[in-house]
Amino acid sequence: MASRSRASCASAFNLLTGGGAERLARSVVLWPLLVAFAGPATAQMLLKPPRPGDQVTLMPSDMAILEAGEPRDDIPCTVTQSKPELGFDLRFHSGYDVTLPVNELAGAGELLTVVFRIYPQNERRNASYFVQHFHVPEIQDTAKGDVLLQGMIDLGEGDYHVDWLMRDRAERICSSSWDVEAALAPKEKPMTLFIAPNEIAEASPPFVNDSAGHPIHRSKDSLDVKLLVNFAPQNSQSAALQRSDTDALVSILKSIERDPRIGHISLVAFNIEAGRVVYRQETAEQIDFPALGKAVESMKLGTVDVARLGQKHSETDFLEDLIEKEVGAAATHPDAVIFAGPKTMLDADVPQDDLRRIGDIECPVFYMNYNLNPQAVPWKDSISHAIRAFKGTEYTISRPRDLWVSTTEMVGRIMRSKREKATARAFVAPAN
């Protein structure tokens, strides 16, 4: 079975055949043709009514099939729902897998249309409708194997019902219906998700400013924090950021940004391997995620500047220079400095004596280490060694719950630190 990553779902079709080299040689990817849609490609397009409060209008034949709720197999296909999973973005991701024989699509080029609706149980009037069009390239009559069609949407906690259909140009129909439950485990119940209960949404790309639909009521005594994020793949041997890596790192940023105790954020995005800062945002109430995304996408991992080839420990030198500039005594300090990124194992760690010479840091320092398999590499990495000089605190993020727990605890510690400093200043002020 293909990967369950969100990226694979957005790529629509894969032709599944035998294993090994034979499968690789016969593989085909059929990309979705998104109709009347401008912007980043998504797995489905949410249909919207002409005016707020109106009902979505579908083709009468499509609506009749959805209302009937009966399975049809004019196109012989197998529909399997995917169990909702909580992602690092603190949203449930659910969807479907559909397989059908490739010879059913043989010809000069087919167009498959998927239409489905989903609504909270017993709330049919609140149904959300989605459509997706798939352009099939020319396929020989002798082609063998199965086609895999995948789709994904985001859900809040709740019980839902799905009515689904697929049709081709000849109006042959495949249809199915199922129920789905998105529920937090008992120990996850206190978590605050980034999507409301019974909410249904398109699966969105990571670098979007999506807080507009979820306004944040900031506390009066809000915090200012500086974020330093190493945008690097979880697998140090990878030549590109995987979608799962990007999702996790962006989710760390959004988790901090959406905490109502956070008032302002400054951001430095960097890549240690490339030895450069890829994006910088001065203090603001919100992170400009589209601008950050463009900068991250411009990175060329696996390439090294010729000028750095002669340096024995160029990555270590870069990290030391970054810390001295962004964290050192000469830097302007907010209420906390927070590092984030995957485990970074360098040939040499930044010498502790060099870090101590930077001077005392007036604010607490934290490290949110994104590490999907901490048992594989249990020892501390180079950023963890570096923050020891500032008595920093490290959190390991392996699951979505870790992100929520660590963010809650970290921001609480920053608040206490700020209050203690305010009390100390008030105590010594009369003496001056």
Strand content: 25-35%
Task: Report the CATH C-level class of the largest domain.
Answer: Alpha Beta
Largest beta-sheet characterization: 6 strands, antiparallel
Question: Uncertain segments of ≥5 residues (pLDDT<50)?
Answer: 1-42
- What count of structural domains? 2
User: Could you say which structural class the secondary elements and strand pairing correspond to?
Assistant: alpha+beta
Number of continuous helical runs: 9
Rg, rounded, reads 25 Å
How would you portray this structure in words?
There is one protein chain. With 432 residues, this protein is an alpha+beta fold. It folds into 2 domains: 6-50 and 62-202, Immunoglobulin-like, CATH 2.60.40.10; 219-424, Rossmann fold. 23% of the residues lie in helices and 30% in strands. It contains 9 helices and 18 strands. It has helices at 6-10, 20-26, 60-68, 243-257, 289-297, 314-326, 352-356, 382-387, 400-428, and strands spanning 13-16, 29-30, 45-47, 72-73, 78-86, 92-101, 110-120, 128-136, 146-155, 158-167, 173-182, 200-202, 223-230, 262-271, 276-284, 336-342, 365-370, 393-397. Strands 1, 2, 5, 6, 9 and 12 form a 6-stranded antiparallel beta sheet that branches. It has a 6-stranded antiparallel beta sheet with strand order 3-8-7-10-11-4, with helices on one face. A 6-stranded mixed beta sheet has the order 15-14-13-16-17-18. Helix 4 packs parallel to helix 9 (400-428). The termini are far apart.
